[in-house]
Amino acid sequence: MRLRTPRRGARDVDWTALSSRELDASEVPVLVLTARTAGADGAAAVNALRELSLRDGRPTALAAPLLPFLLDLVSAEPAPHRASVLVLLADVAAGGRHLRLLLGGAPASDALRAPLEAEGTLLTDLVSASDPKVRGSALLAAAVVARPASALHQAVRERADEESHGVPQGMALLALGAIARRAGPDDSAWDEDAARCTRALGAKGPLKTLPALAFVASGRELPAAATAQLLAALAESARKVNGLPLNRGDLRGAAIWALATPRVAAADTAKVLALFAVARTHKLATDVGCVLVRLAFGDTAAAEPLSSDALTPIQRELLLALSRTPAREFAHVTELNRALERVGLPFKGPRLDRLLGLHGLAPADALVDGRPLWLWCRLALMGRVSADDFVSAVAGLGEEAVAVLLDLGTAPFGLHCRWPQPRELTREQTAEDAAALFDLLARGASALSRSDLQARFTDQARAAEASRSEP
Questions:
Q1: Which H/E stretch holds residue 324?
Q2: Is residue 54 helix, strand or coil?
Q3: Of 157, 180, 168, which Cα lies nearest the Cα of 245?
Q4: Are 381 and 437 in contact, with CB atoms under 8 Å apart?
Q5: pTM assigned to the model
Q6: Measured between alpha carbons, how far is 216 from 100 in angstroms, rounded to an integer?
Q7: If you ran DSSP here, which 8-state letter would residue 430 be given?
Q8: Sequence spans of domains, the chain
Q9: Among the listed residues 64, 112, 68, 69, the one whose alpha carbon sits nearest the alpha carbon of residue 90
Q10: How many CA atoms lie within 13 A of 194 on its CB side?
Q11: What would the pLDDT profile of 330-373 be if each residue is shown by its tens digit?
Q12: Exposure string (b/e) for 393-416, b if CB count within 10 Å is 16 or more?
């Protein structure tokens, strides 16, 4: 589609607003025009379009309306950033992350896939473009949308045979694997493609991971040579590979998924722990830990926290391995904590240790009608149980209310870290939560008034702070 030249020039684009994700779709024509020009502004425009289309690895509400603009940007001349836009189109068509789709994730909606799939002729031309970066990116897009036995499928197969550049050849093999999965397990054409991938497994550098991932993308069993290459990929650095539409970190993450999935599915505890041990060796404890938590506990957010009795043997062994791993080995322990929280588990630390029986229970872990006291507090703050029900549950706590309150840690002392978070917390909201929690506990502790309870808590908090500041 042709766009009218906007009145404002590229220099008028508010790049600060782009970086803070405050731009809306009204700026898109300016961005498309800017991205057609060479230079830093064009690259920034493409990044801005990515920010508008994807958020936290998921398509935004603007993704579908932006697709015609992105396709226009790919087909227009000149198009100095065509390769980057093709990768963005592949991400949108895949539902957020192309590699996750290629490795067996759920496909995106037709509204996101259909526009790119309809451009089969354009992609067929681009997989043979003179620029190897464009060829590699076009092959990635083909991997996401190409149908079996289509003209695009044939073009990908020809590119796998004729390509002399390592990056496009690897992407062509990955695309063949993804197309084979869509064809189904009885597709005899994969036998020939599998032979292509096997021959390419001896490639040097990070490109050896691509033919191994092609077997994963196909949904077929991994040969031993492919498994060995995926294990070797864990040791690769995350720096950008020249000409590759994804970086080594992407490949390494894909290798982790590929290695972890069959192990957890088979409930082979020894292999799961062996994979985690390999990950620790290569400083990948966070990445592998998050993947294994998701695979072992499912991909659905929990509505209630898990109890110790509900853990399967493999889940318990995995959590024990995570608990016993020093925090310094997790490059981003916050990411791991988010993965644990999502499935109803405490953060790595004393609470997780208590869940596993490594330490004694704290006052707030005591069960009341099947729920720990801390959960009663959180649910009351969220409005999911009434104040009367909460007071009834904790009636008779008396002096123990102080210990419960100290253990929970109100407002700045950690209440915002308690699962499940009721909302995104501000300072004002944490203060409101703290006041509400004082009221709730005071109602349940008949022996103490709210003022007495707050005074006791304040005195003990100050004493604890003073002891920490002593030399």
A1: helix 313-324
A2: strand
A3: 168
A4: yes
A5: 0.57
A6: 11
A7: H
A8: 272-355, 363-469
A9: 112
A10: 19
A11: 777 777 888 888 888 877 887 788 778 777 766 667 777 767 77
A12: bbeebeebbbbbbbbbbbbebebb
